[in-house]
Amino acid sequence: SQTVGTYVETPKPKCEDDGQDREMMDDIFDTTYTAKEGPEPPRKIVWRNVILMSMLHIGALYGCFFISSAKPATLLWAVLCFMLSALGVTAGAHRLWSHRSFKAKLPLRIFLAVSNTMAFQNDIYEWARDHRAHHKYSETNADPHNAMRGFFFAHIGWLLMRKHPDVIEKGKKLDLSDLHADKVVMFQRRHYKKLILVMCFIVPTMVPWYFWDESLYTAFYVPCLLRYALVLNATWLVNSAAHMFGNRPYDKSINPRENRFVAIGAIGEGFHNYHHTFPYDYTASEFGIRYNLTTCFINVMRYFNLASDCKTVSKETITARRLRTGDGSYRSG
Ligand code: ST9
Ligand code: ZN
Ligand code: ZN
Hints:
Blueprint: H1 47-64, H2 72-98, E1 103-104, H3 106-119, H4 124-136, H5 151-155, H6 165-171, H7 177-180, H8 183-190, H9 192-212, H10 216-239, H11 260-265, H12 272-277, H13 293-303, E2 307-308, H14 315-325
Helix pairs in contact: 1-10, 2-3, 2-4, 2-10, 3-9, 9-10
């Protein structure tokens, strides 16, 4: 069913833990991957990305000096831009488009795609493709941000060099037909460069300048650059810190961990041992809305009938799994 442009309905696969129907299985860990023998391919650093990322982070640090002189409305706007971009990644690219953990009506998909564009983390299609590879080939050479290569690589290093050939080779086998069939996703991909210019840079900067006479410098450095760098780093911490620091109550055989600090910064995405064990749960956590603004948001959308089919895992299934594979560190809160 790899047909481009049409999403061919295939019989729904069953979940191994509880026999539930699954929309897609390409986010389930594939135990059959083995690394190729012989020397590792050479690392090719992409200096353009090194320079741009350095400039962004220097700009964001410089932006900290503008916070005290910024108008309150500008600071509120910066927080709003942070929240919107974050939701575009967590509820949009992650829980909806990568994992299909709920269904979203067109207005919600448009809202999430617009917010996602404000986050400028590559287009949704590319994000979801890399993320499915991250789950399926977790912590192998075919994982784009393989945490076995260290904190720096998993955090930002992977965006500063060419991908390992295994990422591309294994990634080509992923089923992405649902993304091809989603007109919102494909529209964003087609017009991505123009759209990020508007949503990530022009809108965050011009709104404070136009509506409440903020200086252009402050508007550029705080809601635009500083906000963008903060959302990026909060996201990257899920790949780095939440793959290294924390406990593993659900599956001790994998590296992803429960990390409350990351969960708070990444609006609900730090329960990473749970998430890699049950990637289809729309709350990405056992504990629903706790430290989980993304789940609150999806629940509100469900109330307004814009979200539906939210998948969860039964308490019995979770308990059986953590007794079978957990590290014994489980706490019910
Ligand atoms: C950014 C992304 O920051 C962050 C993602 C984080 C994910 C986190 C997940 C954690 C869970 C969720 C938590 C959310 C929390 C949110 C909290 C919010 C508060 N499969 O990539 P190219 C093929 S982006 C299949 O160029 P290179 C494909 O044909 C930041 N095929 O590889 C592709 O062509 P096309 C801003 C694949 O040349 C071709 O290869 N953006 C796959 O090695 C070339 O692909 C940047 O900084 C695959 N997986 O270059 C840009 N991958 O696309 C950074 C590739 O046409 N990126 N192919 O189909 C780049 O410049 C480049 O990608 C590169 C590698 C230099 C890194
Ligand atoms: Zn992960
Ligand atoms: Zn995920």
